[in-house]
Amino acid sequence: MADTFVVIGGDAAGMSAASKAKRENPDLKVIVLEKGEWVSYAACGMPYYVKGEVGSLNDLVTITAEEFRDERDVDLRTGHEVVDIDPEVETITVDSGGETYEQPYDDLLVATGASAIEPPFDGVGLEGVFTIHDMDEADAIEEYVTDRDLETAAIVGGGYVGIEMAEALSAHGITVHLYEMLPHVLQPFGETVAEVVEAHLREQDVELHLETAVSGFEGAERVDGVRLDDEVVPADIAIVGVGVAPNVELAETAGIDLGPTGAVATDEYGRTNYENVYAAGDCAEARNVVTGEPDHVPLALTANRAGRAIGETVTGSPTPIGDIAGTAIVKAFELGAARTGIVDEEQAREAGFDPVSVTISAQTRAHYYPDGAELTVTLLADRETGALLGGSVVGREGAKRIDTVATALHASMNVTELQNADLAYAPPFSPVWDPILTAAKVLGGKLER
Amino acid sequence: MADTFVVIGGDAAGMSAASKAKRENPDLKVIVLEKGEWVSYAACGMPYYVKGEVGSLNDLVTITAEEFRDERDVDLRTGHEVVDIDPEVETITVDSGGETYEQPYDDLLVATGASAIEPPFDGVGLEGVFTIHDMDEADAIEEYVTDRDLETAAIVGGGYVGIEMAEALSAHGITVHLYEMLPHVLQPFGETVAEVVEAHLREQDVELHLETAVSGFEGAERVDGVRLDDEVVPADIAIVGVGVAPNVELAETAGIDLGPTGAVATDEYGRTNYENVYAAGDCAEARNVVTGEPDHVPLALTANRAGRAIGETVTGSPTPIGDIAGTAIVKAFELGAARTGIVDEEQAREAGFDPVSVTISAQTRAHYYPDGAELTVTLLADRETGALLGGSVVGREGAKRIDTVATALHASMNVTELQNADLAYAPPFSPVWDPILTAAKVLGGKLER
Q1: What is the pLDDT of residue A443?
Q2: Alpha-carbon distance B2 to nearest alpha carbon in chain A (angstroms)
Q3: Which of A62, A315, B114, B280 is most buried by its number of CB atoms within 10 A?
Q4: Do B427 and A42 touch (CB under 8 A)?
Q5: What's the CATH code, domain B118-241?
Q6: Selection from B366, B364, B343 nearest residue B355 by Cα
Q7: Domain locations in chain A as residue ranges
Q8: Between β-strands A335-341 and A388-395, what pairing exists: parallel, antiparallel or unpaired?
Q9: How does residue A132 score in pLDDT terms, banded at 50, 70 and 90?
Q10: Strands, DSSP E only, in A342-383?
Q11: B219-240: per-residue pLDDT in tens?
Q12: Nearest CA in chain A to B441
């Protein structure tokens, strides 16, 4: 009898693993259990659907359920929720909308994702209060925005989602108030990026409330205000985007170990403490290439890559899931902001480094060439070894240049090596010294002192 | 008495070295001999001046002669041509417009640059026939184009200069005929890039004549035609851009060794066969990071970097000039094309590798996000070791992604390592798998077989 590979969760990690496994071994029985109806969708595209730049939610689906079933021969069961894992007996229990059944597996992948954190605010149940945790919610927001004549919005949380939704709602002519408890937005991007983004948000008429805690929402049936410490600010719609938490209950209950970050602990092949149980995607940890420690960065590429690697491993070609650098990029209206590795000195010290950092601003094109923009680059290195630790960039163009820094981190380059990289120059594309090189040059000088 | 550092040539390498040396050791006497009047100018910007996108030739000057003299305290002598080097006596002979004098040195930098090759065509002396070898020539072209009502242009050579000048002249409403002897334009970029660029040039109404040799120019005083094998094609202006050759006569005559490429041979510090004589920039070789062999890639970053390093070395901090990857990028109308390392299989075999290559096309942004473009990526690796050898990209946006490949080459990454790099993803900037990653993934699969 053919082996059975069971996957819990039908999004990036799960479907990548299922597809890859089936492609590598067509005889393998591959079953995917997805509790919802949407599979393999680009959650990152939801703000652009709300903004009106993506015609249909279906456009966000990379591969449809039908394609998985008919073309890839994956036994994809939507509306099937896994309610229990028994790793000793190697069986899961599935609830298919009322009826439950047991499903044995030879290999199991836990790809249960993450969920938007719902803070215990008063009034989160009011109509017009949303998180942006799935496709149906994105649909509901879009409907709420287009059906009504909304004047003001409250966005709670200045992370990716908050900033992308600020752009989306502003595009509908809504006055956006953005509330962030911390002193800065985009906390993982560091202060220099945050300050550039904050100035730009204000330019775009976003009302920015930093170090401001929201305690609840007001309204009869529908939200009409957001409650702060000492006042209530009117709001016709509220979006809560205060982060995500890995969906680990199922795994934890089954005795699958969690790691220090609270996500499922995995080894370099994505294996949990059970030999034939893997975890990948937003519910799982991966190793940070700079610290060598487990990290939890719930982003799409990590999920896709780990899923794909596990699909190879379970079909007989052990394939490491790869380290992560925590690389991320976000559009904030006209700006692009990106980060990789460690960008915060405090965090670098906690990881055992003696950080030295520089921030420079440089043009993205030759100074005399039209339409260039200023790019602000921060780089961090360790004083003793000169090893590059991380960096960030922010500007109206050129944010993808973070990839140079991310690649350097994967290669354990030191600052001198990065400084000597032969990057591409021509006036329409870069100054002679690319801004990344200029930053490395200045950092190199600082390390010598 | 203070030491004397003499620099021959006042452009990228020379002025970088002079400035850096003076900054590191203000007591050093730094003399720069420049035979022309322009110093530290961006030759790469000249086509954009002709096109009309740069207001004044002075905008192309990074730092003026006055700034070098007054602010940086460099003894910059324009209009002074070095006619002889005596490395045994450590003296040069300078012609300052009729009068000659001897100038002793402690350290000497030969930064004599490169010159546009002038093919022995009939009629190259006709009015309206130009190379684009210096600022005065760029000025003359611009004047010729704006003062006259030109209908057709002949551009001889499909390299950077030819393609950039095709764009510049087309912008003036001139019908451009581009003549290339080889089967493809942009030879160092490889065939896949060339084919995309050629299709685009034709879309832009450039008349492309591949495998077509020009034998001369016709006309009474002014050029009015270009002579091919069997016909004469009308041309109101002709630009010859068939490559550059390093200016090595001065060095060669003085007994300074040339390398296998015909440029001045140097060690990792930019030293020639004379301990205290350096060479840098377009006249000198540098080591190719992929082959480990001497290479001659006369581009601005290499010159700047080597000059700067030599400025440090002569002031007591020996600093390697850095390897080159041969990274280059060029704008061809709406396209960007870039290359790094080895992109040609034949060339890879000559360097002792067993090349495997892939070419893929992928979107620069998420498939559902507006305004993305197709990027065609070629990657080469060595079959036995999996080592990355080089690559190219071409598309309407995203050509700077070549920097990821260049960085990977400097880090001696193999294809699997590149494939696992955590590059930045968000819908407005990239698909989940950046096109570079997709190419690495496909190449990785091909290497496994």
Answers
A1: 98
A2: 25
A3: B280
A4: yes
A5: 3.50.50.60
A6: B343
A7: 4-114+245-313, 118-242, 334-448
A8: antiparallel
A9: confident
A10: 355-363, 374-382
A11: 999 999 999 998 999 999 999 9
A12: A305
